């Protein structure tokens, strides 16, 4: 959408959320103080990534020392907790210079005028990221509200040994996925291909993205919510149908029962993202070396697209008095080869920068997947196919509603389509309650 239209949406939301009476457009790096370009600069960065202080030290002892820009990392919680803390600090005009923000949180932070447009300070950075990832930091405008840090391209994980035991083929399409689930049930009634879990809305959002869904878009100065669009209905009907017929399990992930199912071979596949090996290491330690990764099944043989589950960015706040300096660090952090290697080593993240995905940090497969030597080569190819997402200013409401209504539908094996309509309705109602204009 045009930048001017996004600015109007931002202005509306600031008035509603913060009760402001005199409003300005989004902060821009053009408004930076001259002190950002002269004399020593001290920046504060709120981040939850493990080892981020060690990565910042590379900057402080290298490029930062030359530029007289020092960055201090302050460890924070992630998710909605951090978003709330950022907004609270911003309301008092005391937000830090830089913040780590999940992609789906960016519209909320932008609509509250908490993030600066750093487009003028990051020329040449865009080409270092997959288009679908970069789009999440621009909100479809000419502005740049953050630099992508890590990404979560989705993939299909399966037990190689048990697929062989049951005579199953790795599904290339979702139709084949359903057939595989049914075939497994016939051969081993007590075994499930996978489960539909309603306790992590990010998984469902990623599946919808792959199908072409755009949950939040704009029409002029109005938000349009498309959570119950045709693409998402297709995804909901597909998974709801499998749950209803008992072809897959309906239990949530990340529970002791789920861990046991993975560890004992009662569940033999998992639709997840690039970070899955770390989870499997903890959840199913006895299965090391028995899993393999493949591209996500497609809706048609001719397609080659994946969704994203997770990922975050580095943003500069409108409260920073040194926006250009902060933007320079954000760009370095997420594009410099040394920084990216350190992020992978110290933070265990999968960098969003495409060059880093084939760097020395990813020449060896995850220890849990030592049997699949091309793990990261495949992962890099899959990451390039990530579909663009479309987030809005009340993702938290949509996600909470998903957990409630889809949780009930999965447990009762009831209509997923009805649950989707409830999710749509609650999200629209919340936008209106906040004072946003909504296109019907």
TrEMBL record:
Which residues, if any, are the signal sequence? 1-24
Which Gene3D superfamilies does the record cross-reference, listed alphabetically? Answer: Periplasmic binding protein-like II (3.40.190.10)
> Which Pfam families does the UniProt record give?
SBP_bac_1
Q: Say which domain of life the source belongs to.
A: Bacteria
- Keyword annotations from UniProtKB, A to Z: Cell membrane, Lipoprotein, Membrane, Palmitate, Signal
Instruction: Point out the coiled-coil segments of this chain.
Output: none
For this protein, the record's InterPro entries field holds: Bact_solute-bd_prot1, SBP
The answer to whether the entry has keyword Membrane is yes
Q: What is this protein called?
A: Extracellular solute-binding protein
Q: In which organism is this protein found?
A: Streptomyces liliifuscus
């Amino acid at each position: 959408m045009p930048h001017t239209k996004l600015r109007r949406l931002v202005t509306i939301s600031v008035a509603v959320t913060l009760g402001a009476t005199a409003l300005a457009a989004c902060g821009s790096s053009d408004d930076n103080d001259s002190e950002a370009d002269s004399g020593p600069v001290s920046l504060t960065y709120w981040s939850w990534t493990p080892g981020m202080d060690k990565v910042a030290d590379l900057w402080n002892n290298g490029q930062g020392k030359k530029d007289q820009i020092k960055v201090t990392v302050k460890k924070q919680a992630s998710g909605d907790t951090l978003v709330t803390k950022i907004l609270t600090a911003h309301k008092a005009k005391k937000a830090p210079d830089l913040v780590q923000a999940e992609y789906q949180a960016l519209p909320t932070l932008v609509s509250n005028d908490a993030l600066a447009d750093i487009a003028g300070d990051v020329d040449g950075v865009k080409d270092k990221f997959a288009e679908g990832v970069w789009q999440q930091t621009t909100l479809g405008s000419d502005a740049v509200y953050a630099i992508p840090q890590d990404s979560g391209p989705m993939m299909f994980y399966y037990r190689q040994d048990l697929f062989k035991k049951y005579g199953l083929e790795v599904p290339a399409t979702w139709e084949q996925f359903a057939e595989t689930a049914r075939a497994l049930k016939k051969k081993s009634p007590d075994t499930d291909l996978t489960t539909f879990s309603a306790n992590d809305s990010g998984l469902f959002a990623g599946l919808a993205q792959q199908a072409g869904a755009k949950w939040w878009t704009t029409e002029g100065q109005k938000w349009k919510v498309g959570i119950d669009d045709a693409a998402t209905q297709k995804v909901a009907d597909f998974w709801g149908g499998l749950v209803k017929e008992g072809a897959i399990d309906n239990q949530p992930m990340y529970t002791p029962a789920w861990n046991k199912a993975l560890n004992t071979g009662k569940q033999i596949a998992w639709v997840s993202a690039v970070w899955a090996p770390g989870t499997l290491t903890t959840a199913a330690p006895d299965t090391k070396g028995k899993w393999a990764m493949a591209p996500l099944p497609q809706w048609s043989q001719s397609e080659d697209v994946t969704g994203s589950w997770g990922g975050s960015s580095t943003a500069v706040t409108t409260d920073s008095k040194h926006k250009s300096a902060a933007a320079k660090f954000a760009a370095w952090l997420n594009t410099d080869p040394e920084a990216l290697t350190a992020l992978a080593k110290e933070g265990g993240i999968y960098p969003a920068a495409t060059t880093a995905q084939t760097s020395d940090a990813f020449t060896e497969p995850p220890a849990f997947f030592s049997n699949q030597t091309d793990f990261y080569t495949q992962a890099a190819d899959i990451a390039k196919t990530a579909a663009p997402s479309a987030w809005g200013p009340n993702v938290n409401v949509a996600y909470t509603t998903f957990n409630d209504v889809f949780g009930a539908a999965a447990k009762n094996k009831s209509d997923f389509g009805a649950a989707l309509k409830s999710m749509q309705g609650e999200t629209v109602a919340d936008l209106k309650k906040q004072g946003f204009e909504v296109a019907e």
